[in-house]
Structures are given as structure tokens and as C-alpha cells.
Design brief:
By secondary structure, this protein is α+β, with helices and mostly antiparallel strands. It has 2 domains: 42 residues, no CATH class; 59 residues. The protein is 41% helix and 19% strand. It has 4 helices and 4 strands, in the order H-H-E-H-E-E-E-H. A 4-stranded antiparallel β-sheet has the order 1-2-3-4. A hairpin with a 5-residue loop joins strand 3 and strand 4. Helix 1 runs antiparallel to helix 2. The longest helix has 19 residues. The two termini are 24 Å apart. It binds zinc ion (ZN). Zinc ion (ZN) binds next to loops.
Length: 123
């Protein structure tokens, strides 16, 4: 469902049934507004298959990316003389010699599983 379709459903749900005065509670309205905002973000994010920036050899979606659908929230791994993990949302960074790349990826995965920071919007 697109954000526009969801908004139509939301507007219909907000119309009281004829002959009644029942209206959704503020909590229901707030939950709907948050869902719409998340869906609107999903509809406008770039295709997640776009090329990775130069030098990135692995990329892990953060918890925030999975919750919101914003695939710009990632922990990226760079490999040169060292393996370095960097969270694009909160700036968390960890690095180790290339021989320990698998540990760097484990640290990156652990961070990604917990990070709910959102990347700064680019547009
Ligand atoms: Zn982070």
C-alpha cells in the first residue's frame, strides 16, 4: 500500500459513522500519524540497490533501517590496511587490523542490531 492509499484509508476511518459521535482517541490518531510518516519515508527513499560508495566492502542495515525502511541507516565496513566499521547514523566507529576483519563485522552486526539513530535527511 502506498502512503497516499494509507492516507485515504486514514481519512475514511476518521469520518464518524453517521448517527454516532464516536471519534478515535488521540493515541490512535498519533499511532496512525506515525505509521503514515514511516510509510511516506518508505515511498521516497532511493532504491536500496543503488551502488555503494567507493571502498565499502560490506553493509549492514541498522535496527532503525529495518523499523522505518530507510536503507540509508547502515553500518558500513571499509577494508584497507585495517578493517573499519562506521555507523552512518550515529557515527559509532570501530577498527582493527585486516586479520581480524571477522571480529569487526561481528562488532558492526552487534551495533546495527541495537542502533535506532536515523541518518540526517539529504533532501
Ligand atoms: Zn549507530
Amino acid at each position: 500500500m502506498t502512503a497516499a492509499e494509507y492516507l485515504d484509508r486514514f481519512d475514511n476511518a476518521m469520518t464518524p459513522v453517521p448517527g454516532t459521535t464516536t471519534v478515535p482517541s488521540d493515541k490512535v490518531r498519533e499511532a496512525h500519524a506515525l505509521a503514515i510518516a514511516a510509510l511516506a519515508t518508505r515511498d521516497t527513499i532511493p532504491n536500496p540497490t543503488e551502488p555503494w560508495p567507493t571502498g565499502i566492502t560490506a553493509r549492514i542495515l541498522t535496527r532503525a533501517a529495518i523499523l522505518t525502511g530507510n536503507h540509508h541507516a547502515t553500518v558500513d565496513i571499509h577494508d584497507d590496511t585495517r578493517s573499519t566499521a562506521n555507523c552512518t547514523s550515529c557515527g559509532w566507529t570501530k577498527s582493527h587490523g585486516n586479520a581480524y576483519r571477522s571480529e569487526v563485522i561481528d562488532w558492526a552486526q552487534d551495533h546495527a542490531n541495537q542502533c535506532t539513530a536515523l541518518p540526517q535527511p539529504t533532501a
